[in-house]
């Protein structure tokens, strides 16, 4: 799921260097790990749980721009350029993390090529994802947007069960709709149509993809 996350890319030496400076932290569901606009004080590496990344638009709306899970790093941008937080990070469930001060993390990146390269790979992957998501989520019908979103979630969080794929969804319907640049009503209608076609079934924060090939076709 997160095989290419920051911690997985560090290697043994990089992880040892990070662990030597890190402090274990625990956050409860709905805790804010950092707030948009606040000064940058620390960087967090997630060991378990999921967080959502949100930003406030110029007209005051809160928009979900991403979800991070075990192995991911958050808060790194503000630490690197010593600017204020660019987004708010909130725990979706209980979260365990490693915390390193922003100044120490910046020094690590400057002095350890393995750590800085791991960060470059993570940031490059996120830039690619932004471009792909923009194309997938802002074009085409509501069915296409939701299908593309579910395919992405299947890659990130899916577990294959025979011919089916089970996805534990780390967000609410409203949050998923915001990520797909849709109203909650449009997202619900598209999901209902996918259920009626037998492509998926849904439960509480869970989606089962019964016909992955059909969902992939609709996403295109």
TrEMBL record:
Gene3D superfamilies: Jelly Rolls. GO terms for cellular component: cytosol. It holds the Pfam family cNMP_binding. CDD domains: CAP_ED (cd00038). InterPro entries: cNMP-bd_CS (IPR018488), cNMP-bd_dom (IPR000595), cNMP-bd_dom_sf (IPR018490), Env_Response_Regulators (IPR050397), HTH_CRP (IPR012318), RmlC-like_jellyroll (IPR014710), WH_DNA-bd_sf (IPR036390). Residues 140-213 form the HTH crp-type domain. Residues 6-108 form the Cyclic nucleotide-binding domain. One of its GO terms (molecular function) is DNA-binding transcription factor activity. SUPFAM superfamilies: cAMP-binding domain-like, Winged helix' DNA-binding domain. SMART domains: cNMP, HTH_CRP. Keywords: DNA-binding, Transcription, Transcription regulation. PANTHER family: CRP FAMILY TRANSCRIPTIONAL REGULATORY PROTEIN, HTH-TYPE TRANSCRIPTIONAL REGULATOR ARCR. This is Crp/Fnr family transcriptional regulator. It comes from Amycolatopsis rifamycinica.
